Amino acid sequence: MRGTLNDQSLLYLQIAAMVEDDILRGVYREEEQVPSTNELARGYNINPATAAKGLGLLVAEGILYKKRGIGMFVAAGGAERVREKRKRAFSDSYIRPLVREAQALGLSGQELAEMLREAMGDTEKGESV
User: Fold this and answer.
1) What are the residue ranges in the chain where pLDDT is below 70?
2) 64-86 as b/e: b if 16+ CB within 10 A
3) Apex CA 11: angle with CA 7 and CA 13, to 5°?
4) Quick one: angle between helices 11-24 and 48-60, nearest 10?
5) How confident is the model over 34-46, as pLDDT tens digits?
6) Among 51, 52, 65, 53, which Cα is nearest to 23's?
7) Kind of pairing, strands 64-67 and 71-74?
8) CB of 1 within 8 A of CB of 22?
9) What residues does each domain of the chain span?
10) Which architecture, in CATH terms, is 11-76?
């Protein structure tokens, strides 16, 4: 587990997000065990109940599953579930507001698409957007 906790959001949500990040990066693959509640609690100096709540959230979403007495494991298709969840969140947080602003500015879909292509080209060249 990598990362640091902050005061920006609830700790259990941060734990869940860090496990998701590690799944997406391939640190934990399908059917591999993730850190236990106690390992997370010790590593981040948090209450084990907080760590359990973060892992429980991922179990409820079908990203992890529990083997009684053994621990938590990445579910089959867990990485894809994380990816789809994050795509939906990205759309809701960034794309939809972007489209609303583009409409308010009178931009056509073609103009917006061109602006996106240009910005993506800049990032591919190593320039920051």
Assistant:
1) 1-2, 123-129
2) beeeeeebbbbbeebbebbeeee
3) 115
4) 50
5) 999 999 999 999 9
6) 65
7) antiparallel
8) yes
9) 11-76, 80-124
10) Orthogonal Bundle (1.10)
